[in-house]
Amino acid sequence: MNNSKSILSKTVATQRKKLGYTQEEFSLRAGVSLSFLRALEQGKESVRLDKVNEVLNFLGLTLVPIKMEKRDEL
């Protein structure tokens, strides 16, 4: 993954802001720690999937696998 934020990170931050929550308020309501939410929104590559699902459930979203296009081998 490159240095840009992931779609997941951008989505969570955008939806949180649309709801008018600070990170602290949102983390309390979603049932995750503030440090986890910050890591998620910053695009940290290793986050707990169960916690990601808690955040997404609070937003009324779900994480689903999608097939990626085949990349050329280097």
Please describe what this structure looks like.
- The protein is an all-alpha fold and 74 residues long.
- The protein has helices at residues 7-19, 23-30, 34-41, 49-59.
- Helix 2 (23-30) crosses helix 3 (34-41).
- The model has no long low-confidence stretch (mean pLDDT 90).
Task: Tell me the helix content.
Answer: 40-55%
Secondary-structure element series: HHHH
Treating each run of at least 4 consecutive H or I residues as one helix, how many helices?
A: 4
Low-confidence stretches: none
Strand fraction band?
A: under 5%
Question: How would the blueprint of this fold be written?
Answer:
Elements: H1 7-19, H2 23-30, H3 34-41, H4 49-59
Helix pairs in contact: 2-3
Provide a brief overview of the structure.
This protein is an all-alpha fold. Helix content is 54%, strand content 0%. The longest helix is centred in the first third of the chain and has 13 residues, at 7-19.
What key phrases describe this protein's structure?
elongated; 0% strand; 54% helix; 74 residues; 4 helices
